[in-house]
Amino acid sequence: QVQLVESGGGLVQSGGSLRLSCAASGSALRFIRMGWYRKAPGKERELVASLSSRGTTRYTDSVKDRFAISGDVAKNTVYQQMQSLKPEDTAVYYCNAQTGVAGEAPEYWGQGTQVTVSS
């Protein structure tokens, strides 16, 4: 059974930093991509950043130049360094791991970690 375990969320003031970590356990699966989504109250879940097994990164526009994703997809680990945090970054952040094309192959989710940015 695949488990994605997240850590690193918390409460921080505007302008502060946090680092999220995610590690997959119990898996012999090969992921092709790992990343972070977030869900804020009243908003739809959105992709924040992703990292492919080839090292390709992708960011949503609102976090470019502030967030950095890193890790080793082959080793089932991914991190997200978040700097210059804003109140609008407040959300539950979920780690995601994909084994193939989204919607066509299994994907896995972490339990979520709360990030709260106070103004």
Strand content: over 45%
Mean pLDDT: 95
Q: Helical region count?
A: 0
Secondary-structure-based class equals mainly beta
**Run of helices and strands:** EEEEEEEEEEE
User: Rg, please?
Assistant: 14 Å
Number of strands: 11
Helix share bin: under 10%
The separation of the N and C termini measures: 40 Å
Global outline = globular
Unreliable residue runs: none
Major sheet description: 7 strands, mixed
List the helices and strands and how they pair.
Layout: E1 3-7, E2 10-13, E3 18-25, E4 33-39, E5 46-52, E6 57-59, E7 67-72, E8 77-82, E9 91-98, E10 107-109, E11 113-118
Parallel strand pairs: 2-11
Antiparallel strand pairs: 1-3, 3-8, 4-5, 4-9, 5-6, 7-8, 9-10, 9-11
